[in-house]
């Protein structure tokens, strides 16, 4: 049926073909709707055709219409809400025929105003999904023609299929753009990470490189420019082409929660030239992430620099400290200063100094407890005093080091740690000990003086009477009585000699030093002891240095010291098998500074427990007075020298006397 007698109508199949071609070729929404509506209207001579599209993921709500008759439906789809009948088409997906004569629609503006005309509302459906509406106005008698309605329904389906395709393509395009942006973002962060992870790269280089990398991640790398300005340090990092221009994206840089600068990216172009550019949403997002990352890197680097500086300050401070300082963390010594190394040896990454076998047996219990507490971090400050016996002095002799250690909780490299403060108390303790000994000696002196006073006078009376008794016995040839008297005399002499020793000890006589070769008193003592030693089966070996410098010595006093040391050695070897008892005596000059006398024996030596106490007055392991060594030490100290325990090359005990040579007394001789 021809709708308009004046014009020729294109057949349904031809119209269908033409519409289909349009739908395949066109990929832009608006030209598609316009062309389809016009072609449909003109080919089939409809009064009006309107196409309205519902909003989809990538299709916005839009409409296109063309009409030769009354414009009753123009703008209908632009204003919402639409009449209920049309919304029903969208909801139910079934075509709707609108004829004015029907009473329900008489007041509705959608209904045709011309009698004899009707409207067909067809839903644009594809796979059950609603894409919009095709609205056609045509003579009412045509509505009754099934083929025309079926044709329009099919056109509607094709339009929906086309809209679906456009939507899918748009989705693909969006996904592809997003993927591209994401890959640019990943590339940026990958390259940036490579720079930041280089350990020695400074912050300035990192930031400059970070800025240089930005344009490559933008849509137009050839035109993009970037700048980072840090206001707090007045630093500026830019790409060479940077000048502030629009379009521009600016992001603040936050460090420790404070805005310290701005990252700006723009497309600078001379006025009137260059393309009109904008930043994509994804690019703005990326720049936001870059700003955040830069802030974090500045924060981290500045933190590290501050930490390094504070560690350096700590090192400077501790390296010059006079006490030993160490840091214990996770059961390991992680830092120690030179003074600490001097006391405990090189860094061993082990806190075993408190558990070490070298700790004096009497102190082990407390050092273990100390160690347990500090490694549990269960304290604020804690102190311990202990002695270490395992450490060797430079000459290889065992050395006792008295240590005072204070532990305090601290933080090191942002983790809990223990700060150990250690003082070598050996010297102060030695002085303390010396004072204690001197104190003891003073009291002993007072007692001895009293005893001497009370005993000496009656004793000299006893001696005088004994002399008379001896004479009397001799005159009478009383042999037995004479023997008894001489025994009493010898016992009395012993009492006198003990009193004299105690007196000497308590009231040391003034030193009478003269310039003398140290070998002289040494040799005298050896000669005096020789007979007794031979009788006890002790072999004496001597190696006395030649051309020793003269020293200012009180010769008899040094002789007394030597006799004491020789007697001690001989007594220590009393129970040894004959042929194994040896005493070696050597003298020598060291560095032209001091003369050294050594007395070594092959006896049992002195155990760790006794070592510390043998110089104490009255300390003895024998049935004797225990003042021999304390007298020796005092005499040597009076000569400004030292008397110490030393290793013995013969396996027993060894004593070393060092007496300074006064420079004016040093007379260089051959071989010295
Ligand atoms: N050569 C040695 N070998 C082993 N032990 C020694 C030696 N010399 C000293 N001692 C130890 O040192 C202690 C103290 O010695 P010191 O000479 O002071 O006193 P004493 O010998 O016991 O008594 P005194 O000397 O007054 O008669 C001794 O009792 C002994 O245990
Ligand atoms: Mg002795």
TrEMBL record:
Its EC number is 2.7.13.3. Keywords: ATP-binding, Kinase, Nucleotide-binding, Phosphoprotein, Transferase, Two-component regulatory system. CDD domains: HisKA. Residues 450-663 form the Histidine kinase domain. It is an enzyme of class 2 (transferase). PANTHER family: PEROXIDE STRESS-ACTIVATED HISTIDINE KINASE MAK3, SENSOR HISTIDINE KINASE. It catalyses: ATP + protein L-histidine = ADP + protein N-phospho-L-histidine. It comes from the Bacteria. This is histidine kinase. SUPFAM superfamilies: ATPase domain of HSP90 chaperone/DNA topoisomerase II/histidine kinase, GAF domain-like, Homodimeric domain of signal transducing histidine kinase, PYP-like sensor domain (PAS domain). One of its GO terms (molecular function) is ATP binding.
């Amino acid at each position: 049926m021809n709708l308009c007698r004046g014009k020729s109508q294109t057949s349904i199949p031809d119209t269908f073909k033409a519409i289909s071609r349009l739908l395949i070729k066109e990929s832009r929404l608006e030209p598609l709707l316009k062309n389809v509506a016009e072609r449909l209207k003109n080919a089939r001579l409809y009064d009006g055709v309107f196409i309205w599209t519902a909003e989809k993921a990538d299709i916005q709500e839009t409409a296109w219409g063309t009409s030769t008759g009354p414009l009753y439906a123009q703008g209908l789809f632009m204003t919402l809400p639409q009449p209920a009948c049309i919304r029903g088409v969208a909801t139910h997906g079934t075509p709707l025929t609108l004829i004015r004569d029907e009473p329900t629609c008489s007041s509705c503006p959608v209904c045709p105003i011309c009698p004899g005309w009707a409207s067909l509302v067809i839903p644009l459906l594809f796979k059950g999904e609603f894409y919009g509406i095709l609205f056609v106005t045509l003579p009412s008698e045509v509505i009754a023609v099934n083929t025309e309605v079926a044709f329009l329904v099919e056109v509607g389906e094709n339009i929906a299929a086309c809209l679906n395709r456009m939507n899918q393509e748009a989705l693909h395009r969006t996904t592809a753009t997003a993927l591209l942006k994401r890959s640019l973002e990943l590339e940026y962060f990958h390259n940036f990470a490579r720079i930041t992870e280089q350990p020695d790269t400074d912050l300035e280089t990192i930031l400059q490189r970070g800025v240089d990398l930005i344009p490559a991640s933008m849509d137009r790398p050839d035109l993009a420019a970037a700048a980072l300005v840090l206001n707090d340090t007045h630093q500026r990092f830019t790409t060479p082409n940077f000048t502030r221009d629009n379009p521009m994206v600016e992001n603040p840089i936050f460090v420790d929660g404070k805005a310290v600068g701005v990252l700006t990216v723009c497309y600078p172009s001379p006025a009137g030239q260059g393309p009109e550019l904008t930043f994509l949403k994804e690019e703005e997002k990326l720049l936001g992430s870059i700003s955040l990352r830069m802030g974090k890197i500045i924060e981290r680097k500045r933190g590290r620099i501050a930490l390094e500086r504070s560690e350096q300050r700590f090192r400077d401070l501790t390296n010059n400290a006079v006490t030993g300082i160490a840091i214990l963390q996770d059961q390991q010594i992680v830092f120690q200063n030179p003074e600490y190394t001097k006391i405990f040896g090189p860094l061993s990454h082990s806190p075993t100094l408190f558990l070490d076998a070298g700790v004096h047996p009497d102190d082990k219990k407390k050092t273990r407890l100390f160690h347990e507490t500090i490694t549990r971090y269960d304290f604020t400050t804690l102190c311990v005093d202990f002695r270490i016996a395992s450490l060797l002095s430079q000459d290889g002799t065992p050395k006792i080091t008295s240590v005072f250690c204070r532990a305090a909780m601290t933080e090191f490299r942002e983790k809990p740690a223990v700060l150990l403060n250690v003082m070598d108390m050996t010297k102060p303790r030695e002085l303390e000990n010396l004072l204690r000994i001197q104190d003891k000696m003073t009291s002993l002196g007072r007692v001895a003086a009293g005893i001497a006073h009370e005993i000496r006078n009656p004793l000299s009376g006893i001696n005088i009477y004994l002399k008379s008794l001896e004479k009397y016995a001799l005159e009478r040839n009383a042999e037995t009585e004479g023997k008894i008297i001489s025994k009493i005399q010898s016992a009395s002499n012993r009492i006198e000699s003990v009193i004299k020793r105690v007196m000497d000890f308590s009231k040391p006589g003034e030193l009478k030093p003269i310039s003398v070769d140290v070998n002289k008193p040494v040799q005298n003592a050896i000669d005096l002891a020789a007979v007794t030693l031979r009788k006890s089966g002790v072999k004496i070996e001597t190696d006395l240095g030649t051309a020793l410098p003269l020293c200012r010595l009180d010769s008899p006093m040094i002789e007394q010291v030597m006799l004491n040391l020789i007697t001690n050695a001989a007594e220590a070897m009393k129970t040894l098998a004959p042929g194994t008892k040896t005493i070696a005596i050597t003298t020598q000059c060291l560095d032209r500074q001091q003369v050294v006398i050594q007395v070594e024996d092959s006896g049992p030596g002195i155990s760790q427990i006794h070592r510390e106490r043998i110089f104490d007055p009255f300390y003895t392991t024998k049935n004797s007075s225990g003042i021999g060594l304390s007298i020796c030490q005092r005499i040597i100290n009076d000569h400004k020298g030292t008397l110490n325990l030393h290793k013995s090359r013969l396996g027993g005990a060894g004593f070393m006397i060092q007496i300074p040579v006064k420079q004016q007394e040093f007379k260089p001789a051959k071989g010295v």
